[in-house]
Structures are given as C-alpha cells and as structure tokens.
Amino acid sequence: MVIILIGVAGSGKTTVGRILAARLGCEFHDADDLHPPQNREKMRRGIALTDEDRLPWLYAVRDLVQRCLAENRCAVVACSALKQSYRDLLVVDAAKVKLVYLKGSQALITDRLAHRAGHFFDQRLLQSQFDTLEEPADAIVVDISESPEKIADTIRARLGL
Prior knowledge:
Blueprint: E1 2-6, H1 13-24, E2 27-30, H2 37-44, H3 51-70, E3 75-78, H4 84-90, E4 97-103, H5 106-114, H6 126-132, E5 140-143, H7 148-159
Parallel strand pairs: 1-3, 1-4, 2-3, 4-5
C-alpha cells in the first residue's frame, strides 16, 4: 500500500508522514525531493509553479508510487497534490493507493510557516496554494490542529491499520 499525504505547504505532510511511516514500518518519501532544481529555485524566490512546471515532478512522484507498488513496498509519500488532476495521475490503483488530506485553516498554517526554517518554500506562496487547492472528495480528511503524533494515530485508525 502507498499512502499519499496531501495538502498545502505547512500542513504537516513531512512531519506526520515520517511518524506514520515509522509506526507502520513503511518507507517515507518526501515528493519535494523530486522537484527539479528550477522548481525549487522558483519557489525559493516566491514564484508560484505552473501546471507545466509541476508535470515532470508529478510524473516522478507517479513513478515512485508505481515502483513501490510493483515491488510490494509499503510507503508513505508527502505530496501537495493540490488539484484533482494531479491526484488522478498519482492514484495508479485506487485499491492500493490511499489519499489522506491534511486539512487546516489558513491562519494555523500561516503561523506554522512563520516558525519553519530551512525549507525552500517561500511562505508568500501560501495564498497561491490555497487558491489552487481543490479539496478532495475521495480522500480521508484529517484535521491538523492536533499534535503530529495524534494525527498519525487518527490516520492509522481511519485506514484500519
């Protein structure tokens, strides 16, 4: 199984993903690591990515998901996947790929980003992420106002794991 944690920057995808993967005995992958250098540079400079910018990245994430499934590896992947078309590309097998939407208010996430250091994402882009976000109808929705450990426990319970 592959669990993809989706949501805007600052929603806790990486933090929760690492905890969830450890508790499930799965590998963890941060899709941000698959961004080409030019995407990272654009985001660092506060320039929002276009769909054209994101497409090679999304195919790289899709390839990762397919490899994990083909090799029967359990994985948790942190990936914003803000639009339904992106999620449609990533969910290569609905029976084996589960989406979990980490949902929080813009105020909460803005506060989190203000206290985050060492990440290439420029917090000025948060509004563009909320503008782009198409909330999923086909995902498990988890409120991010709890601690990362509690969120991971909630995800496990909601997935029946």
